[in-house]
Amino acid sequence: MGENRIQAGDTAHDQWAMDVTPERAGWACSGIRSIELSAGESAAFATGDDEVILVPLEGAYRVAVDGEGEWDLSGRTDVFAGPTDVLYVPRDSAITVTAQTAGRLAIPTVRAENRHPVQHVAADDVPVFVRGAGPWSRRVRDFGNASVIDADRLIAVEVINPGGNWSGIPRHKHDTASAHESQLEEIYYFEAAPTPGGPGYGLMRVSSSEAGDIDVTEEVRSGDVVLVPYGWHGPVTAPPESDLYYLNVMAGSTGRSWNITNIAEDAWVSERWADMEPDPRATREGLPSAR
């Protein structure tokens, strides 16, 4: 396993602003790409062995899938503005993306064996809910789970941490295939709203489990990626007055189930939630812009 934090721009090449392949990550199947386009500009690529989900970070797009048709992704002004339309595209597909407005598009990728239909999920159909309570409150946009998209192995989700809040708590893992736990590689892609003094940031922690040794305590900024091949992960923290966004990509040997094991010493956290209200900032969309 190589580095666990990949800084913004480190994997840029050709048309890709970010290109984290499974080979770069040093694992079996999960990856993430991004592309930046001016209004009216197009980009074409093939999915190859990967199934993908097109996730507008900023801007609106028309997507043509060879032999399948065209779809509009109405997008959003930035990742804090609310959910977005997404488009699932199977392996062995040819894609052309045309930007209707200038913007950035993230593309979670997972090595797949089977082809599934192209699927468009409208922003209004994305499940959105609050996980946790009090300072552990975070908002989840769960567009890439098995109840929303029919896929081979790919799982994807967005999370918003309001400024000062913690997510990834209780600390948890999903690195051992069992009746009670999934084995999933996980990618975190971050964007941070600015602080009153400058660019935003967050902090992320990953520690060793029986599945392997890992020690990550990293400052993360917009465009950064953290790779979690195994280990206890959490917390992810946002500083006061600076909201934090991350896009998770997960896949592994246990299909599309997300079964986790929580670390025992954090059991008290979820017990406290029963007597606390969610942070109001986590119950609504429309947080500050990251750009």
How is this structure best described in words?
The chain is mostly beta strands and 291 residues long. It has one domain: Jelly Rolls (Sandwich), CATH 2.60.120.10. It is built from two helices and 22 strands. The chain has helices at residues 22-25, 267-273; strands at residues 5-6, 18-20, 30-37, 42-46, 50-65, 69-76, 86-89, 94-99, 103-111, 119-121, 128-131, 138-144, 155-161, 166-167, 172-173, 184-192, 202-209, 212-220, 225-228, 232-237, 244-252, 261-262. Strands 2, 3, 4, 5, 6, 7, 8, 9 and 10 form a nine-stranded antiparallel beta sheet that branches. The longest helix has 7 residues, at 267-273. The chain is globular, with a radius of gyration of 18 Å.
In short, what is this structure?
This protein has about 290 residues and is mainly beta. The chain contains two helices and 22 strands.
Provide the succession of SSEs.
EEHEEEEEEEEEEEEEEEEEEEEH
Q: Count the strands?
A: 22
CATH class: Mainly Beta
Share of residues in strands? over 45%
Number of helices: 2
Tell me about the largest β-sheet: 9 strands, antiparallel
The low-confidence runs, each spanning 5 or more residues with pLDDT under 50, are none
Q: How many discrete domains?
A: 1
The radius of gyration computed from the alpha-carbon positions, rounded to a whole number of angstroms, is 18 Å
